[in-house]
Amino acid sequence: MSQQFPSQRFSIAPMLDWTDRHCRYFHRQLTQNTLLYTEMVTTGAIIHGKGDYLAYSEEEHPVALQLGGSDPAALAQCAQLAQARGYDEINLNVGCPSDRVQNGRFGACLMGEAALVADCVKAMRDAASIPVTVKTRIGIDDQDSYEFLCDFIGTVAQQGGCDTFIIHARKAWLSGLSPKENREIPPLDYPRVYQLKRDFPQLTLALNGGVKSLAEAQTHLQHIDGVMMGREAYQNPGLLGQVDRVLFGSEAPDADPIAVVRAMYPYIERELTQGTYLGHITRHMLGLFQGIPGARQWRRYLSENAHKPGADIEVVEKALSLVADKINVSA
């Protein structure tokens, strides 16, 4: 069945140190339609860094690059590079509250500089033809009125030409709270995001923050165009196996977790021959069998053995047997 909905309908949040290319390849085995995001990459890393910060596997599509930066020229250069590499979307981070992000003048502090954000978006849109989106919060510090949020969205939409925003339904405290605390302490305000959609019906708006189930996602989708899931998708990736059916209307069967692990084998073999450590891939797979008999043994065996020198596919196969045996017994 062909895809009925835009991929923005459901996406997995960009998460620093988590959503690397191994994670995305794994998530793609579970869901074909979900939009996947890179970790935030700074313009400086892309332009001046030694490594290839734009590397990904073709199988990851649709995949978006999240950029951190506030210099329109540098962002435009990175947008051109991203388009040349085949990314499906570029997203500007205006939501991360971490200190090191603020010191570089990007992330959530940019909410206070709507005209600059608009300039950044316009520069990227002029440089590349793929969609440019913005991920932001509902406010920062004491600038947390609904009017402030509307002014920010209106300015970036009108002056920058941005038509798609992902809204983390919490405000950010730029000082006094750690990034972790900023994900937990400021209260979630979903009605404010819903109101934004009513007031800006012409924009595509997705909601992020605290979404823990596909049932919750379905509820949000009655009010808004898209839902972005973060930690739950990472810690309990098995639920992604139902996304295509539940949220995208696919008639294909849900992804079977054991089959998903086996589908990873060619990728793992390829990566091992290129010098990747097994644990760098399997750390993203630990939560796959959550709620299934044998899940604890799977996690423990991988955790204890995947980082050993020379660890290879046999480690994964052994860990998988600990779950498969339990499933077969209980079946």
What does the model show?
The chain is α/β, with parallel strands linked by helices. The two termini are 30 Å apart. The chain folds into 2 domains: 7-248, TIM Barrel; 257-330, Four Helix Bundle (Hemerythrin (Met), subunit A), CATH 1.20.120.1460. Helix content is 44%, strand content 13%. Strands 1-2-3-4-5-6-7-8 form an 8-stranded parallel β-barrel, surrounded by 5 helices.
Query: How many E strands?
Result: 8
CATH class of the largest domain: Alpha Beta
Q: Write the CATH fold name of the largest domain.
A: TIM Barrel
The best one-word shape is globular
Percent range for β-strand residues: 5-15%
The helix/strand class is alpha/beta
Helix content: 40-55%
Give me the CATH architecture of the largest domain, please. Alpha-Beta Barrel
Task: Determine the N-to-C terminus distance.
Answer: 30 Å
Biggest β-sheet: strands ordered side by side in the sheet: 1-2-3-4-5-6-7-8
What is the chain-wise order of helices and strands? EHEHEHEHHEHEHHEHEHHHHHHH
The oligomeric state of the chains shown is: single chain
